[in-house]
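> run fold Peptide deformylase
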Amino acid sequence: MILPIIGYGDPVLRKTGELLTPEYPNLKETIANMYDTMYNACGVGLAAPQIGLAVRLFVIDTTPFSDDEELNDAEQKQLQSFKKTFINAKMIKEEGVEWTFNEGCLSIPDVREDVYRNPSITIEYCEEDFVIKTEVFDGLIARVIQHEYDHIEGILFTDKISSLKKRLIQKKLKNIIEGKTFQEYRMRFFGKKGR
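> ok
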């Protein structure tokens, strides 16, 4: 089921997500709905706060990034096959020289900014079986994970840009809060009832 995406300004996007247990009600259905919602909005990642749930859950599918002609065959293949659910994620390490990439967010439509992030991460998480894993990820996959991980920590990519850039996008952010924005997917706005 495709759910509305929560827009910038809603307090749920600023909450630190709570840990999930295997008994969490309708978890498999929630995860399936998150993938449906993400694909409908042409996203590569979606975190539970973006559908109104303050829990430690996000989903990723980097397939759309695999079309980038600047990537080598190995990178394209890796991005093409990366689809994963992260439950109760905990960042262990972020390493390497920070690099910039132009990021956007389904909760903040029509806003894109360059964000610096580390190229390599070590993260502990569970998939749907709740078995704890620790893995290292690099490059664009690491970046998408970091972006979604920030969501479950109550952090948005706009928190990572300069004060000047924040001032320049203030009007766009205010319009999102008030629901004065249009996109092809359903949204729910804090200052207005969504469509």
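The chain is about 25% helix and 30% strand.
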